[in-house]
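Note to self: the last two entries modelled the partners one at a time, which told us nothing about the interface. This time every component goes in together.
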Amino acid sequence: GENVEQHPSTLSVQEGDSAVIKCTYSDSASNYFPWYKQELGKGPQLIIDIRSNVGEKKDQRIAVTLNKTAKHFSLHITETQPEDSAVYFCAASKVTGGGNKLTFGTGTQLKVEL
Amino acid sequence: DAGITQSPRHKVTETGTPVTLRCHQTENHRYMYWYRQDPGHGLRLIHYSYGVKDTDKGEVSDGYSVSRSKTEDFLLTLESATSSQTSVYFCAISDHVDTDTQYFGPGTRLTVL
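The predicted structure of the combined assembly is written out below.
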């Protein structure tokens, strides 16, 4: 089955700096790569996703890049703000007509310091 | 926020007792999923459903069963709870029509003593 590794496990940045979180996956058939943000006591919330036919996607301060050859994808957050502090999870799956079984990384605790 | 509720939100039970967690959606999405979240493991898929009465196993299905008799409800049952099933359980839904996004519920914190 799919295996997703995520680094780093904790990340501390100064407000206004950029943050980068990296993930690798094992199954070359995976074609969908979402990123989720989880605040304390809440369920994960999708912040951005990318399909395997796209190399990069951007949404305001957040961007995701995908390297299919190397089987890794990264989340980039620019101009970080205190409200970006949360746990971030990457995930990978092979979307089929039978659903979307996500395999998650182990999470990155991001702390944005003033 | 997607219309997903989970009940109960917190539960403490004893080893060997049966436990049922409920996920209810108001979005009429076809697909529903149960995950568990544990420190150091991220979220792991337990079971999922691709329609009423249609379910399949996920990565960590041992000790769990599910049922879906209506589009809006997906039940997760621990037939005989064990301490290793102490976890936070999340339900998710998706339609896979316009998007593959999974929307997560608020979670249920289960403690098995």
